[in-house]
Amino acid sequence: MDSTRIIQQEAAMIYPEVVRHYRWLHQHPELSYRERETAAYITAFLDSEEIPYRSGIGGYGIMARVTGEKGTEAGLVSPQAAVVTQQKKEEGRCIAFVADMDALPVQEENRVEYRSVNDGVMHACGHDAQAASMMGAVKMVHALRSHFAGTALFIFQPGEEQSPGGADLMLKDGLFCDYTPAFVVKQHAYIDLPAGMVGFQTGTIMASADEVHIRVKGQGGHGALPHQLNDTVLAASQVVVAMQQLVSRRRDPFNPMVLSFGRFIANGATNVIPGEVILAGSMRCMHEEERYRMLQLIPQIAESTANAYGCTCETALPEGYPSVVSDLKITEETRSRAIAYLGGDRVSAFPQRMTADDFGFFTQYYPCCYYRFGVAGVDRKPGALHSGTFLIDEKSLRTSSGLFAFITLNSLK
User: Fold this and answer.
1) 281 & 327 share domain
2) Domain CATH for 274
3) Which of 129, 194, 319, 411 falls between 20 and 30 A from 267, CA-CA?
């Protein structure tokens, strides 16, 4: 079987349908953990294609299943061997693919006919493209199920953009209670590569992400009488500075880390020192042991710094996302399949960076590969991620849907 030619033909035929799915999803974005209509649209599609699935996993999560039928066609298996063959098929290799469904609280600025109809909500990260691509892939794989043996799982995941993370919720809700995937693959839109290209990287490719919430309290009062109060604004400012010194002086310099504060709320006035200041930030680490060591140090340093100015301090560190690790063996195998399908000149690399993805929960338990597919157009940049001008080149959808199908057929021979 020339799987490259077959998948390329299938991808070309199904491409207009994938574009329709993408445009519907882009036009009807939903925030994390509210993906009710998105899930309904995807399950209606699966029903129409008669593809089995489970829904309501960890919220609005969906897992579609395609079981290969190679070697079980009528006339190829004797009646006496049918039971044994069925058992082998059920016990055969299993692989899994993941696509996100949630959108962001961003106002769309693009002037296209399929722009968001939900005010202040937009697919500004490419999750609409991911979900549409996987809808095309599962349809192709289902149509070609006689060409392989084993099971391919297609996971439509909610809540990637917001803690606690849909990946974690789905895993805790028994996502793989009936299966043990040999590996899990996820692809993500990438604005730094043109449509038709993909990029790979191995090892720890993205950082962990933990939110840091600090509340500094003291006796507020008149700004002209600092000796009669506790200056919470000054104390909170020193806490922010101390956090930066934590990064520079207490961190192992061989382990990258970023600690940034984007919220500093001191609701006073020109002559009023408030009794409370609120800080909120994010810590990113590329090393899990270093991550947990820093999470222990943050409340200690914040409290001691606030105390030095006569204030008290409360720190909350909700559980965040672990770092994303692309397994060397699985990533190299996936990369070689991408070269076989697309050609070596269309397969590139991408750099490590301190952004995060809750796919890290999958990489803690299973060999995984996280790669990126280019969405930039020849004449138009897609706009920055998480911005109101983000918009993919739809030609990228042919590559992203076809490659998932190609990986399936060549991993479940």
Assistant:
1) no
2) 3.30.70.360
3) 319
What size, in residues, is the chain? 413
Alpha helix locations (H) across 255-366?
288-307, 328-342, 360-365
Q: Which of 289, 316, 343 is the last residue of a domain?
A: 316
Residues 6+ apart with CB under 8 A from 173: 57, 58, 61
Domain hosting 231: range is: 208-316
Q: Give the span between the Cα atoms of 260 and 240, in whole angstroms.
A: 9
Q: How many domains does the chain have?
A: 2
Asked if 171 and 361 touch (Cβ cutoff 8 Å), the reply is: yes
Reading the chain (413 residues) residue by residue, the pLDDT tens digits are 688 999 999 999 999 999 999 999 999 999 999 999 999 999 999 999 999 999 999 999 999 999 999 875 433 444 444 444 444 444 479 999 999 999 999 999 999 999 999 999 999 999 999 999 999 999 999 999 999 999 999 999 999 999 999 999 999 999 999 999 999 999 999 999 999 999 999 999 999 999 999 999 999 999 999 999 999 999 999 999 999 999 999 999 999 999 999 999 999 999 999 999 999 999 999 999 999 999 999 999 999 999 999 999 999 999 999 999 999 999 999 999 999 999 999 999 999 999 999 999 999 999 999 999 999 997 777 789 999 999 999 999 999 999 999 999 999 97
| Alpha-carbon dihedral 89, 91, 95, 101, rounded to 10 degrees | 90
Q: Report the alpha-carbon distance of residue 66 to residue 82 in Å, rounded.
A: 19
Structural contact between residues 62 and 43, judged by C-beta atoms closer than 8 angstroms: yes
Angle between helices 36-48 and 3-27 (to 10 degrees): 140
Q: How far is CA 247 from CA 257, 259, 283, 284, 285, in A?
A: 7, 7, 10, 11, 10
Q: Are residues 29 and 151 in the same domain?
A: yes
CATH code of the domain covering residue 137: 3.40.630.10
CB 231 within 8 A of CB 275: no
Q: Report d(CA 391, CA 116) in Å as an integer.
A: 12
Residues 120, 152 contacting (CB under 8 angstroms): no
Peptide bond into 164 cis (omega under 30): yes
Distance CA(3)–CA(405), nearest Å, equals 10
The residue among 39, 331, 336 whose CA lies nearest residue 183 is 331
